[in-house]
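Task: sequence design from structure.
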């Protein structure tokens, strides 16, 4: 009798675990969706050195991922969040007060910041020479902990190609791949 009870218990555990694994496997087959974030920023650009990096003030994103998830599928919420990864980041020149273009940015690093999380490097550009668009290299990094809150921001560190003092207006285009699961 004890062996039968033990055998039944193990069988139920196996079935329950297997069903959960099958459901999660099927759900993983659903494609992640894009969450774009675009904003226009005006940044005072003052650089007196071409050998060191200058840090910009925080650029708030404040992406409410819970709302974005519900827009995509009302049955899901931030509690179903499985993965968030940056897929693209670029900056497009709009204007400047003294006609400084984006080729003044030689190298740049971008960090993401959120409450109770360390700053994390999420994008870089090296040897930029394009005056109208800066396209960043984005590593395949998990950012889920930075989006469990809507209080998230970006910080840029910029190394200039020439000494410059200007105010540059740019359009920042970012994209995030979001994956949810039951």
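Answer:
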């Amino acid at each position: 009798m004890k062996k039968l009870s033990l055998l039944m218990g193990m069988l139920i555990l196996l079935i329950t675990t297997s069903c959960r694994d099958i459901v999660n496997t099927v759900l993983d087959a659903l494609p992640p969706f894009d969450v774009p974030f675009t904003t226009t920023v005006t940044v005072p650009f003052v650089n007196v050195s071409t050998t060191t990096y200058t840090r910009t003030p925080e650029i708030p994103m404040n992406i409410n991922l819970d709302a974005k998830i519900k827009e995509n599928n009302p049955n899901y919420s931030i509690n179903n969040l499985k993965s968030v990864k940056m897929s693209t980041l670029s900056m497009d020149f709009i204007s400047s007060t003294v006609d400084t273009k984006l080729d003044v940015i030689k190298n740049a690093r971008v960090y993401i910041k959120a409450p109770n999380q360390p700053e994390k490097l999420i994008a870089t550009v090296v040897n930029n020479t394009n005056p109208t668009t800066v396209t960043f290299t984005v590593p395949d990094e998990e950012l889920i902990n930075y989006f469990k809150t809507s209080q998230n921001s970006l910080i840029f560190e910029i190394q200039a190609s020439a000494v410059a003092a200007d105010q540059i207006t740019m359009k920042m285009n970012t994209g995030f791949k979001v994956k949810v699961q039951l």
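Residues 2-28 form the longest helix (27 residues).
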